[in-house]
Design brief:
This protein starts with a helix and ends in a 45-residue tail after the last helix. The protein has a domain of 77 residues: Orthogonal Bundle (Type 1 dockerin domain). By secondary structure, the chain is an all-alpha fold. 28% of the residues lie in helices and 0% in strands. The protein is built from three helices and no strands.
Amino acid sequence: MFKKYIFLVSVLFISLILITAITNDMKPEGKKVSESTGSYDAPPNIEGDPMIFDKTPLCDFDKDGDCDNDDMLYFQSIIGQCKNEDRYDFQADIDGSGCIDSTDEYLLFHKDLDNDGINDAIDNAPGIANPDQKDSDGDGIGDVSDDTFDVHDDS
């Protein structure tokens, strides 16, 4: 009995070590905010709560609320940059390849799976065509795919 207990404790301990190592490896690499503190930029979230969905489009590098020509110009200025290079921006490396390339440009600025004319990076319902982008409850999810939207008129 005692040997089984020791074995189970050992397995749990090793599992905990492996999980910690794996999650540490998965932390994103980004631009350092300060060389002295070594802290990294974090994606913004609503009211500081990390569990609330961030509505900022992935291609909005200047954080002005939309993906526009300024964002495309910034992206084009860093294309070809790879990890450990001064101008590498992990937000632009959307495919996680380690280098900012044409695949990232396609995914950020051109991909439109539902063919509604709205780039998936800013589409509020990327899997369902909704060219009007209607979002009645303002939660960032289009009415066509929002399960909280009441489609029945009770009046």
